[in-house]
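Help!! Second protein's tokens look totally different from the first
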Amino acid sequence: MMNPDSSDQTDNVVQLRPSPMATLFSKGLSYILSFIVCFIIVAILYVFIFKLAWDNSVVPIFSVKNITFWQSFALLIAARLLFPAYGF
């Protein structure tokens, strides 16, 4: 015989679902964070490619010194400010 106090506890459990707004916010936040990380990675790669191009082309032709990562970053920013319609 079954005891009425020992009823199955799963009948009274309510499934809690996250609200649609919370789900949308967490997905949006993850998209934003992944975009920021991808942007930083692409920017670093772009600066390194520019540095390699500078060191392998300008240095032998004009006998100037090699540039550092931050100098190439500053050159790219200066070029972007001077020529805003062209590229990165």
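Here's the second one for comparison:
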Amino acid sequence: MNWFMLAYVAVLFYVLTPGILLRIPKNGSKMTVAAVHAVVFAVIYKFTHKAVWAMTEGFETTKPTTKPTTKPPTKPPARTK
């Protein structure tokens, strides 16, 4: 899991919460404001998440797993009559 991506989404969500950075529309009802901010969040996320993922991909804290070793298939014992 990319923890930087999780942090990016959390910060983006907080910043776009109505009343933190902006409130649009100013005279809208609570539901209208929430819906507009949800659309703004979705649009910003849509156009930025790939770039943020690419920038943070090198910061992964987990080590890549090694390729599992596989044994060659063994032949079943020969049958005797």
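Reply: Different proteins will give different token patterns, so don't panic. The chain has a mean pLDDT of 84.
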